[in-house]
Amino acid sequence: MARAVGRFELITRLRTSRMRRALAKLQDRPLNFWAGAAPDASGHGWTVDHYRQPLPPEPPGAPTPGGSWTIAQRLLRDYAFADPRIVRAVFDPEQPLEGRDMLLQGRFLGLRFHLGVRVGGVVDTQREIDGRRVQVWGWDYKTLEGHLEAGQMDYEVRKWVDTGEVEFHIRRAARTGEIPNPLVRLGWTLFGRFMQVRFARRACARMQALVVSALERASVARPAAHPTASPQRVFRFRFHPLYRVAAGWFGVRPARAWVTVGGGRLQARFGPWFVDTPLVNVVGWETTGPYSRLKTIGPAHLSLADRGLTFATNRERGLCIRFREPVGGIDPRHRLRHPGLTVTVADVAGLAAALRELSGAPV
Q1: Which has more pLDDT, 292 or 332?
Q2: Strands 338-343, 318-327: parallel, antiparallel or unpaired by DSSP?
Q3: What is the pLDDT of residue 3?
Q4: CA separation (Å) from 198 to 107, 178, 248?
Q5: Cα-flanking dihedrals φ and ψ of residue 248, to 5°?
């Protein structure tokens, strides 16, 4: 056993050494496109994508220490939002972020591709967008010679000062790079776009899950004498094994199912379904259950009787939350509106208490 461990450690050191040498070689490698060529819109061989991921909100004003914005900023600085099953990064954390070289290892169908990028500008400012102030922190990287793509990726975490909403943004402006190997070029032609979209969507989902988990750990570690020290309170769903299997087919997993209360907003995530509304829109709630398994198992469910929305992970017990103005949630464009939302969180009483304390509703 000791011999096996020693061999594993030696292989790990050899691989790490090889990656470090490859990283060092990036210093003299130029960009594989003219930096001013990246357009604002798709066309002429370029594809421009924008992705936006809501994160748990904070109180209005400047970013809250230990809140969503600062957690996302740390994850963004460390490139921790990237799904390691798709892309892993090697870089020297002692180097300044601006101008830093990064060696990305792309992974697809058991193959590995070493892709060099260089961090460009770092943004730390307040902007005005549509007459609203937003606090922004982020950075971009540009692709180096030998990369399968040619272009720029921008990553930002934003907080709207007036409402406390926090968001993670990704912008990609890229075209296909020069790929001498015909097999790799064919593979990129067939699967490149799929991998681009998959990376960005996974990055958004992972950023959200990591921020929620960090807030949850902070909430658990908070001293009981200071119950309001954290701006968000995170409530996880309680999954019955049968519901967990059925929900998994629709992208609903424990890491992507939660309710947050705080920062003036109520947010509920249930896999691809998402509800976001101001707390002042909450007018009441009640404990409900048990439910019909047929009517609640699997994806989000819409009541044909009153258009109420249900995020269920067990049939025993949940909290039905009522709204003054109906909210969207069942469809991506939020065209259908729901007067109520039922969530089967593990701590039903705790969620009710948080709503009672922070929403101002009489119930």
Answers
A1: 292
A2: antiparallel
A3: 41
A4: 12, 22, 18
A5: -60, -30
pLDDT tens figures, 219-264: 655 544 444 444 578 999 999 999 999 999 999 999 889 999 987 8
**Angstrom distance (rounded) from CA 85 to CA 32:** 26
Tell me what the mean pLDDT of segment 306-331 comes to. 95
Q: Which two tokens stand for residue 316?
A: 């025993």
* 3-state class (DSSP) for residue 254: helix
DSSP at 202: H
Instruction: Confirm if 232 and 351 have CB atoms less than 8 A apart.
Output: no
Beta-sheet pairing, 149-160 with 301-302: unpaired
Q: Residues in the chain, how many?
A: 363
Whether 73 and 91 have beta carbons less than 8 Å apart is answered as: no
Are residues 281 and 323 in contact, defined by beta-carbon separation less than 8 angstroms?
yes
Question: Can you tell me the distance from the alpha carbon of 179 to that of 283, in angstroms, rounded to the nearest whole number?
Answer: 59
What span, in angstroms and rounded, lies between the C-alpha atoms of 113 and 17? Answer: 17
Instruction: Give the pLDDT confidence score for residue 188 in this predicted structure.
Output: 85
What's the CA gap between 322 and 45, in Å, rounded? 49
Beta bridge partners of 286: 320
Is there a contact between 168 and 56 (Cβ–Cβ < 8 Å)?
no
Q: Whole-prediction pTM value?
A: 0.71
Cα dihedral: 341, 344, 350, 354 (round 10):
-20
Query: Which residue shows structure tokens 């699997």?
Result: 298
C-alpha 210/C-alpha 304 separation (Å) is 35
Helical axes 182-221 vs 68-77, angle rounded to 10°: 140
Q: Read out DSSP for 121-172?
A: EEEEEEEEETTEEEEEEEEEEEEBTT-SEEEEEEEEEEEETTT--EEEEEEE
Instruction: Give the residue-averaged pLDDT of 41-61.
Output: 89
Task: Measure Cα distances from 79 to 122, 207, 361 in Å.
Answer: 14, 10, 41
Q: How far is it, in rounded angstroms, from Cα 52 to Cα 114?
A: 27
Which pLDDT value is given to residue 220?
59
